[in-house]
Write a structure and sequence with these properties.
heterotrimer, A mainly alpha (about 240), B mainly alpha (about 50), C mainly alpha (about 220), A: about 240 residues, mainly alpha, 6 helices, about 80% helix, B: about 50 residues
Chain lengths: ~240, ~50, ~220
C-alpha cells in the first residue's frame, strides 16, 4: 500500500469526506480562539498602540499566501511527473484560496500602514512583492478559466506555475534591490531573540494554526468540487456520444 | 465588552471587518460551488442509471 | 533552424506582416506621455528612462500573439513540429526572429525618441545598452507566453495578463541601470543582473516553450 493510493480520485473522495467537517471545525475553533484572544485579551503595543492587533490577521494571511503558491508548485510538479489528476485539481483548488489570502494580507497591510507610516501604500519591497504575487495568481487562474480541455489546462497551468515561480522569486530580489523598505523584518523566526513578545506570540500561533487549517479544509472542499465537476463532464460527454 | 482601542479603533475594526468578510466570502463561495456540483453529479448519475 | 528564422523574418517584413507596427506604437506612446504629464522639462527628463522602458515593453508585447497564432491557424505549426528539428530550436528561432523585428528596432529608436523626452545626456548610452541587453529576454519570455496561449481563441488579452508579470524583473533591472547610469552611479550590478536574466531566459525558456507547444499540438 503506497502513499500514492490516497491520490486515486475515488479513494480521495472516500477519505476526505469524513475528515472534512473535522478540518473545518478545527479551523473554526483555532481562528475564533486566536482572533478573540488577540483582539480582546492582548495589551496594546507601546509604540503601535492598538494597531498591533492587526498582526493576528496580517501575518497568518501573508504566510498562507506564499505557502499556497508553494503548495500549488508542488502539486503541479506531482501532476507533471506522476500524472495524478487529484494533484492537478488540488493546485487549481488552491489558487482562489491563495489569492484571497494575498488580498487579506495586502488590505490589512494597507490599513495598518496608514496610521504607522502615514500612507496606505508605499512601493516597499514586501508590499510590492505581494502585489506581484497577486498578479501571478490572477494570471494562473485566468489560464485555468480559458482552456476547455481539463488535461490540457492542467498541463499548461503547471508549466506556467513553474516558470512563474522562478520569475516570482526573481521579482522578489529585484524589488528588494530596487527600493529600500519601510516594512519591518520577519516577525517570526526560530531563534528567540528577534521574536515578538510572548503576549502577542501565542495568540498569533493559534491564529496561524487557524489559517493553515482553514486553507487545508478549503482546498479539500474545493478539490472535491473539482473531482465531481470532472465526473459530471465525463458523464455528459458519454451521454452526448450515445 | 469591546476593549478600548484608543485612537486607532477605526483602523483595527476595518482590518478585522475586511478580513473576516473576505474569509466568509471564500468559504461561502466554495461551499456553494460544492453544493451545486454535487447536485449536478447526482442528476447526471441518475440520468445514467435511470 | 536558420531557414525557419529567415522565413519568419521574410513574413514579418512583408506587407501586413506587422513589422514596424510595434515601432510606430512605441513612438506614439512616447509622444502621448508629455500630453499626459505636462511639458515641464524637469519632470520629463526625470521619468524619461522609465517611460522608454515601459513603452518598449508594451511595444514588444503588441506583436507577441503573432509569433505562433498565424502558423497555428493555417497548420504550418504542425508541419514545423514534425520537421526534423527539435521544437526547442523552433521556439528559439521564433524568439530570435521576434527580437530582430521588434527588440532591435526599439533599441535603435529609443535614444532618438529620448530627445523628445529630454533624456539626460548621460543616459543615452545606458538606454541603448540596457535595451540591447534586456529586449532579448522580453522576446524569449513573450515567445513562451505566446506558446502557452496559442490554442486559445482571442488569447491576446490573456497573453498580456500572463506575460506582463513575468516582465517585471527585466523592467526593474533595466530601468534601474539607466537611472543609476544617468546619475553617474555604479550601474554594474543591475547591468549584470539584466544580462543574467536574458541568459537565463534563453537557457531555460526554449524548453518550457517546446513543452507547452507539444501540449497544445496534442
Amino acid at each position: 500500500m503506497s502513499l500514492w493510493e490516497y491520490a486515486n480520485p475515488k479513494k480521495f473522495m472516500g477519505w476526505t469526506g469524513p475528515i472534512l467537517p473535522w478540518a473545518f471545525g478545527a479551523a473554526g475553533v483555532c481562528l475564533v480562539t486566536g482572533l478573540i484572544w488577540g483582539f480582546f485579551f492582548t495589551p496594546d503595543d507601546y509604540r503601535q498602540g492598538s494597531t498591533v492587533k492587526i498582526i493576528y490577521l496580517h501575518v497568518p494571511a501573508a504566510l498562507m499566501a506564499i505557502n499556497a503558491w508553494i503548495m500549488m508548485l508542488v502539486a503541479s510538479l506531482i501532476w507533471l511527473i506522476r500524472r495524478h489528476h487529484v494533484s492537478a485539481l488540488a493546485a487549481k483548488a488552491a489558487a482562489p484560496v491563495g489569492i484571497t489570502m494575498t488580498l487579506i494580507a495586502l488590505m490589512t497591510g494597507a490599513i495598518w500602514g496608514q496610521p504607522m507610516w502615514g500612507t496606505y501604500w508605499a512601493w516597499d519591497p514586501r508590499l510590492t512583492s505581494f502585489l506581484i504575487l497577486f498578479l501571478f495568481y490572477l494570471g494562473y487562474m485566468a489560464l485555468w478559466a480559458a482552456i476547455d480541455d481539463p488535461d490540457t489546462a492542467a498541463d499548461l497551468t503547471s508549466v506556467l506555475c513553474m516558470v512563474g515561480s522562478v520569475f516570482a522569486l526573481l521579482s522578489r530580489y529585484a524589488v528588494n534591490f530596487w527600493n529600500q523598505g519601510l516594512h519591518q523584518g520577519a516577525s517570526l523566526s526560530l531563534d528567540k531573540e528577534e521574536n515578538v513578545a510572548d503576549v502577542f506570540f501565542f495568540p498569533l500561533l493559534v491564529a496561524i494554526a487557524g489559517f493553515v487549517l482553514l486553507f487545508f479544509a478549503l482546498v479539500l472542499l474545493r478539490t472535491r468540487t473539482e473531482i465531481r465537476s470532472r465526473r459530471v463532464r465525463a458523464l455528459q460527454l458519454r451521454e452526448g456520444r450515445r | 465588552m469591546i476593549p478600548d482601542l484608543g485612537k486607532y479603533a477605526a483602523e483595527v475594526g476595518l482590518a478585522y471587518a475586511v478580513s473576516i468578510a473576505l474569509l466568509v466570502a471564500i468559504v461561502g463561495l466554495s461551499w456553494r460551488q460544492s453544493k451545486r456540483q454535487k447536485a449536478a453529479l447526482d442528476a447526471a448519475e441518475a440520468r445514467k442509471n435511470g | 533552424m536558420i531557414a525557419l528564422l529567415l522565413r519568419d523574418l521574410r513574413l514579418a517584413t512583408r506587407a501586413g506582416g506587422g513589422f514596424g507596427l510595434g515601432l510606430v506604437f512605441f513612438l506614439i506612446v512616447v509622444v502621448l506621455v508629455p500630453f499626459g504629464v505636462g511639458p515641464e522639462t524637469e519632470i520629463l527628463s526625470k521619468i524619461a528612462a522609465g517611460i522608454l522602458w515601459v513603452a518598449a515593453l508594451l511595444a514588444a508585447l503588441l506583436s507577441l500573439d503573432r509569433i505562433f497564432a498565424l502558423d497555428f491557424e493555417d497548420g504550418a505549426l504542425t508541419l514545423i513540429a514534425t520537421a526534423p528539428i527539435p521544437l526547442e530550436a523552433v521556439g528559439l528561432a521564433k524568439a530570435i526572429a521576434h527580437w530582430l523585428t521588434t527588440g532591435l528596432a526599439l533599441t535603435v529608436a529609443a535614444p532618438v525618441l529620448g530627445v523628445l523626452l529630454q533624456l539626460p545626456s548621460g543616459a543615452y548610452g545606458f538606454v541603448a545598452l540596457t535595451l540591447l541587453l534586456g529586449t532579448p529576454a522580453l522576446s524569449m519570455i513573450g515567445t513562451f507566453g505566446a506558446a502557452l496561449t496559442v490554442g486559445i481563441r482571442r488569447g491576446g488579452l490573456l497573453l498580456s495578463l500572463l506575460v506582463l508579470p513575468l516582465y517585471i524583473p527585466t523592467l526593474i533591472f533595466g530601468a534601474e541601470a539607466v537611472r543609476r547610469g544617468a546619475q553617474g552611479l555604479d550601474a554594474t550590478t543591475p547591468l549584470l543582473m539584466l544580462g543574467g536574466i536574458t541568459a537565463g531566459a534563453f537557457a531555460m525558456l526554449p524548453f518550457a516553450t517546446a513543452a507547452v507547444l507539444r501540449i497544445n499540438l496534442r
